[in-house]
Amino acid sequence: MNIKTENKGEVLVIKGNRNLKGKLYVSGAKNAALPNMAASILTDEYLILENVPDLLDTNTMLKLLNDIGIKSIYQDNRLLLKFENQPNLSASYDYVSKMRASILVLGPMLTRFGYARVALPGGCAIGSRPVDLHLKALQKMGAQITLKEGDIIAKAPNGLKGTKITFEKITVTGTENIMMAAVLAKGKTIIKNAAKEPEVSDLANLLIKMGAKIEGAGSDTIVIEGVKSLGKARHAVIPDRIEAGTFAVLSALCGEGITIENYPFEYLECFNETLNNIGVDIVKIGKNTAFIKKAKNLKPASIETKEYPYFPTDLQAQIMVLLSFASGTSKIKENIFENRFMHADELNRLGANIKVDSKNNIAVIKGVQKLEGAKVKATDLRASAAMVIAGLAAEGTTEIEDIYHLYRGYEYIDEKLKNIGAELEKRIKGQ
After folding, report:
1. 193, 119 Cβ separation under 8 angstroms
2. Model-level pTM?
3. Considering 124, 141, 354, 394, which one is annotated as catalytic?
4. In what order do the strands lie in the sheet with 20-25?
5. Which of 80-84, 173-177, 219-223, 425-429 is predicted least confidently?
6. How many of the other CB atoms lie within 10 Å of CB of 352?
7. Is 124 a catalytic residue?
8. In terms of Cα–Cα distance, which of 13, 15, 2 is closest to 254?
9. Residue 292: what pLDDT?
């Protein structure tokens, strides 16, 4: 992979108010690639993953897997993984602190080797994402869990046992972790109130190719019959619906005519309907290609984020930029994370009119005629995408600090945007 480290001293400078035209290609889904990569822990045979995006987060996961004992070869978005070294059943804070999704190695390590030590996860600060749901489920499967020196120590010397698990709250990584733990457990595991996200189904499809017995992925009840071992598989990661949605919003604000290839219509039904209601025309060209022009007369909307198949929290920041140009007052209620409106203050610096009711997790957006360039910060991954869209739509020059967040989730984004006419460059802060 090409992106090796995050550079917190870099800023992105954008010259805005340009008409953008051309093609954007949607890369593989980060949130599908990460659990798919973790599944390599479950077998000694080759796992070949295609359409794996080159990102800070996939690099972090790859380094973690290498440390665990998995050899890898990455070329042209194709990743070959194979367990070849003596397993190191510890995931250190050095890796896990950079990315919460590192917790996904816990289930596979524990079910295959009967032991795992994983640092409590970190990641971007958009709210509490506790792992207690993962731990309670593993305990129900027979694991002994202790917390020591900031690490989760999980033991199952006699293996995990299938059981019925009902999540108190829908959790994507929790569903994925327990699904991976269950594939090698003894007997049948039933996961109730499971996450329905496409990325969960993508992981299930990979595990089935490896020899797992899984039914119901994509519904709220997943049934897994444990098997003794898993084998090799070849699998292509699904397109990134969040990147696709980000490109759609960008096209609606800045596009003279933008074609978005590899656009996963089937995963974005609620989002697409929301855009249509706001006044954005998404033209479907063939099975997986969308064409979007700059929208006129944007209408206000009332939106609530919710688990799939409803409006995704990961597109909330981007849609806020779009609604900042609507004629009238819009409202967004954030139901997933309690601290995910940090980008509102940054958008206000550009001239937006947004007020946040922190107690009720509601943002009220009054439409404005224009945004003007300013210095802003990217407070998290999706907020960074919102800042880029706002900078492209604003008049003048926008400088975005902490832009390293952007490269956690958007592959070769600079090049993609330059190819459609955007003027932007990375600089070292203060230069």
Report:
1. no
2. 0.95
3. 124
4. 20-25, 255-261, 289-292, 283-284
5. 425-429
6. 23
7. yes
8. 15
9. 97
